[in-house]
Each structure stands twice: as C-alpha cells, then as structure tokens.
Amino acid sequence: MKDIFYMKKAINLAKLGKFTTCPNPNVGCVIVKKSKIVGEGWHKKSGEEHAEIHALKIAKEKSKGATAYITLEPCCHYGKTPPCCEALFFAGISRVVIAMKDPNPKVNGIGIFWLKKKGIIVKEGILKNEAEYINQGFLKRMRTGIPWIQLKLAMSIDGRTSLQNGKSKWITSKKSRINVQYFRAKSDAILSTSKTIFYDNPSLNVRYHEFNSEKLKKYNINQKKQPIRVIIDSQNRLTPSNKFIHTKGNIILARLKYDNFIWPKNVKQILIPSYEKKIDLNYLFTKLGKLKINNLWIEAGPSLSGALLKKKLIDELIIYIAPRLFGQYSNSLCLLDNYSKISKTPKLFFSNIRKIDSDIRIILKPDDNLYN
Asked: From the centroid of its chain, how far is CA 342?
C-alpha cells in the first residue's frame, strides 16, 4: 500500500510536465526515507535535468538508504544529460520502485538490470496502467514509430459539421473552444488540410491568452511555444502569399511534389508517396514519428476524418456536440462507406463524457474488435 501511495504522488508530479517535455516522456520521482518524503521532482523540459536529478538535489544526503519512486525506468545512457541510474547509485539510493519499463531501445530493461547489478533492490509494475496513460504519445511512438493520433470534430446534435454553404463558425460554445486550446497545447503537432485552410481560415495555433492564469503558472507553460502545423496539400494549393503561411510557428506542407516558390524559413515541404492518388497517410504519420512527434492533434473536414476512421489510424476521437440542428442538407461529420450491415460499421467505445457549458464533449476510442 505504501508503494502505491508514493507512486501516485510521483505520477501527479509527472503530469506537471505534460505541456513542456516533448519529445521526452513525462516522468515524476519521489524519494522516501523512514516513511517521509525527502525529495521530489519531475522532468520539466527536454534537455534539462530529469525527474530523478531534481528529487536527488532536494533530498541531498538523505538519499542514502532511501527508496526512489519513479514513474518510468531511469535512463542508463548518456544523452543531453548524464544517466539517472548512476546518479541514483552514487546518491546511495538502496531501493527503486518503477511503474513501468521504458520502451526506448536505449533503455528498455537495461536500466533495471544496471541497478540490480549494483545491488539496488528494484520493484517494477506499480500503477503501470496509470503511468502508461500519461505517456500515451511517447510510448506509441517508441513502440510503433507513429504518434498518438487524436481526431477532433465539432458537430450539431444531428451530426452535421457545417451548413450547406460551408459555414461552420461557431458550432460550439466559447468554453468548448477554450477546451480545444488545452488539447492543442499538449500536442506536438496539429494536422489539417489545405481545403480546411481555405474554407475556415484557421490559425491552428494555441491561443494562450484564453488559458486560466493559474494553469499557466502551475504547468510552467511557455506561451511562445507553438505546435508544428502539418498541412496536407496534395494539390499544392497553398502559396507563399497565403495568410496562413505568415502566422507564427513552423509549418510542414505534406505534398506529392515540390513547387518552384521561395518559401519563408518557417515553412518546410516534405514529399509523401501517393496512395490511390492521395497522400499516403501511413507514410506521413511514420514520417512525423521520425520527427519525434509524440502527440498529433487533427482538425479537418469529413473527407480526411472518414479516411482516418476507414484506415483505423486514430487512437481517440474527440467530438464536441452543440445543441443545434443544422438539417439534412448540411455537411456530415465524416465520409464513410455505405455499409449494408450494422455489424460491419466501425465500433468505438465511450472513454469520457463531459458537459462543457451548453455542449457535450465525448471522447471515443476504437474497441479491441474495431471494424469486425
């Protein structure tokens, strides 16, 4: 029970880095001696000290003979910072409790082996599911090479995303739109299409001025940091004169072929092979994984949304439902096949349901037998 109690504290510490640690995982550490917390810390930013080092600096000489509770297996290799395994050993830590192994091939059990070899008692698997939940993006990228993919949609209560004339501002309430900003801020990249850019003229950035000031302070959020914006532009519709190109932040244009324009420094074109005359989404997401993008947030229209669902590429579907009726001639939520059997339609399950102002936000995930 004590191990669970202190690991919960370590997990809560790890969450404090959820806006700032990319491409690294969120990690928390609590050091306990004689049933008292003598040091605690969390990983705050890539390139800076890891959670274990912060906790050891607070514990100082009290680390000797103490137990360290860490949400992720400590690193054992030299990267931007020295190995945490060595720091724990030289500080005199006698027992280490780990929530889960690090799937990074540079670690992945090697850290645990190193600690045991040095005579340190190691216990692993405490609150493993909770530890995995706070690092879904990092873990998926390490295990599959592809980011954690969230698809966001907003719709009327009759399942429409815009009127027949294409107008969609605003379907949902202001509080729902602020809620979207938090998801954007936690993402490493935001993906959309050139069609959405032309129809809706979105900036696709994080509007930090809408954040709660206490949350900005609590999570030490850098308000200058913006996710990379990835735009699928298979027909090269965007040009350097487009207003979207001149908004702050880096932009990636995913294309089938280059153009001859001179682009601003913040814009990069990447070539993606075609699949059925369109961008190969599997290839694109693998490419984004290689760019160390853990969490990918997608805001797009019914065509891309339908393609993502059809190809089973999403990890979470996040829908904001407004109490409005748009009517039968308005545009639908996503374009899918014309199914002849209910048993063949995509299956999802409700992961979370929350009321936000006048709207309802639902989070769905594919079930284990998706697309039976």
From this structure: 32
Whole-angstrom distance, CA of residue 255 vs CA of residue 278: 9
What global pTM score does this model have?
0.91
Q: Say which residue the tokens 């860490």 belong to.
A: 70
Question: Is 299 a known active-site residue?
Answer: no
45 within 8 A of 21, measured Cβ to Cβ: yes
> Of the listed 40, 52, 73, 130, which one is catalytic?
52
User: Which tokens belong to 59?
Assistant: 């514990």
DSSP sequence for 309-365 = HHTT--SEEEEEEES----TTSEES------S-GGGS--EEEEEEEEETTEEEEEEE
Residue 111's nearest CA partner among 120, 11, 319, 209 is 120
> Could you read off the pLDDT of 114-147 as tens digits, one per residue?
999 999 999 999 999 999 999 999 999 999 999 9
- The residue among 174, 157, 198, 148 whose CA lies nearest residue 300 is 198
Q: 349 forms bridges with which residues in the sheet? A: 365
For residues 209 and 221, is the Cβ–Cβ distance under 8 A? no
- The pLDDT tens digits for 173-188 are 999 999 999 999 999 9
In the chain, helix, strand, coil percent, each to 5?
30, 25, 45
The tokens for 226 are 């913006």
SS3 state of residue 259:
coil
